[in-house]
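Request: Mind sharing a record?
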Amino acid sequence: MSVGFLLSSPDDAVIWRGPKKNGLIKQFLRDVDWGEIDYLIVDTPPGTSDEHLSIVQYLSAAHIGGAVIITTPQEVSLQDVRKEINFCHKVKLPIIGVVENMSGFICPKCKNESQIFPPTTGGAEKMCQNLNVSFLGKVPLDPQIGKSCDKGQSFLSEAPESPATSSYGNIIQRIQEYCDQRHFQEEKSNV
């Protein structure tokens, strides 16, 4: 589900104040028939806004598994992520871990890696060590990701040999392991 489906044109801007945005978030969570799901992924913009707080509050009864926080290697992105981690701690939202996106570029021809966005302060991995947060992995830049998204196709199916596909697989596995362990612990405590 996306706000984009509610707009008359894909080029329309969403210019809504807090109450309208929060109402829409509540409506998405309450009125959309999600069916039987294992995971609900909510993609939010960077920051610690009203929307983030609303999502946490509206989903609190559903026992949120946790947050996966995405960053890029640059310090300007890591600054926002540190705030998001602090936000999660304050609202008692578990942090599954952090993913570093756009982490190097692996040339499809020669397989050499170049740092297009060099981690000037050590990147997400060092930040996670300093903050005692799980580091889930790095996803390298791959032009095929954008092409697949533009076509509405699965990158994982379209580029199975890409280093990014392998990275995604490892990250997904770590998230699933975290959720399985958390679910097991919840069941155990309810007995």
In short: The chain has seven helices and four strands. The beta strands are 67-71, 95-106, 113-114, 135-141.
